[in-house]
Specification:
By secondary structure, the protein is of the alpha+beta class. It contains 5 helices and 7 strands.
Length: 158
């Protein structure tokens, strides 16, 4: 049996080409995790950290999703989230750089592993001065170059 190959129209080929070109963002979303966290802690910290960005920086959220049957799904970030890891010292430095650049950020401290709700989480962070926070995770959003400088010294999460 012979199969025939049907060439798409010029307009269809152009449309597909335009839609398949990579999108380069001027901004970046990163999560920086301390390298001594257990696997479950890394996942927990990452999910908590990124949840804060969309509430304060609405431009990071894309459009809602819909499948072929018309079932709707919640919108998600419009760009990738890059996850890095580093030592305690790298986290301290990154935290300071994020603050000095006034970038939108979310913080997760070691104290939050012993709390069980948002109210207690906020109280645990509020109880410690900025310089004394035991930061185990940090999410940052902003211009690519600024975010790259914040996570300097960190490595991509394996």
């Amino acid at each position: 049996m012979q199969r025939t190959y049907k060439t798409a129209s010029y307009d269809d080929r152009q449309s597909r080409r335009m839609n398949s070109e990579p999108i380069r963002f001027d901004t970046k979303i990163t999560v920086l995790l301390r390298d001594d966290l257990e696997p479950w802690q890394r996942l927990n910290v990452t999910s908590f950290l990124v949840s804060g960005l969309g509430t304060q920086v609405p431009e990071v959220i894309g459009e809602p999703y819909e499948d072929a049957d018309g079932v709707s799904y919640l919108p998600m970030f419009r760009q990738p989230v890059l996850v890095f890891e580093g030592t305690k010292e790298v986290l301290v430095a990154a935290h300071g750089r994020a603050l000095s650049r006034a970038l939108p950020r979310a913080v997760f401290t070691s104290d939050l592993f012993s709390t069980g709700n948002d109210r207690d989480n906020r109280a645990a962070v509020r109880a410690v001065a900025t310089a004394g926070l035991d930061v185990v995770g940090l999410a940052v959003y902003g211009p690519r170059n600024a975010v790259d400088k914040v996570v300097k010294g960190a490595r991509m999460h394996p």
